[in-house]
Amino acid sequence: MPENGDRPGSDVLRQMLRDGRTDVSLVDRIVEDLARQIIDGTLPPGADVNSVELAKRYGSSRTPVREALLTLEREGLVDVPARRRPRVAPVTLTQARELYEIRASLHTLVSELIVSNADDQDLEVLHVWQGHLRDDAARGDVDAYFWHNVTFRQAEAEVSGNRQLTRLLSSLGLRTLQLRHVSLSLPGRLDRSVEDHERLLAAYADRDATLAAALTRSIIMRGLQAIEASGWSGLDSD
Fold this sequence. Notes:
4 strands; globular
């Protein structure tokens, strides 16, 4: 049976999908496998999802597959139309822009709170993750960089000291991960991202809330601009 345990980001993805549950069902495994393939682009927007083939792959009936697809439909990653084959949900330009605007606003608040609330030990946690990002970028490892970047942002939310804000960011779901992976996969993005995060950490160290907030918004919105400029085939016009 497919299992993602040794792949980068598995713990992060499971935490997001299971919301603290420790039990693991077949449905969970199918959801994780398909979610990862959609996030990393193995299954691009518009791709068919064959439930019969999935049932064979997992050695199961079609019932767990249907349950997994409905879970992914609630996350916005899959369309399950009546009497038609499920497919990876398309992403419209408006959806992408709205998601990035929300993320930019929420993470701007995170950065302001970090300056106000985080101590030197908290900032050291961010420096540890930044070290992973530097190493990943040096190797050109997009997948490792992406998942470490996700963890960096989660660590920021935690050290901001606002639990409700952390939960709100988590509720944005998996669609944002799909777009972030696309953005970081584009040429030159890893090196630029590392440099941007170095400046952000320097602003935290200087306790400069205005600069930290501006850098965070710029970093996030630059990701959207990169997707738009790339002509990514998965992005539909409205």
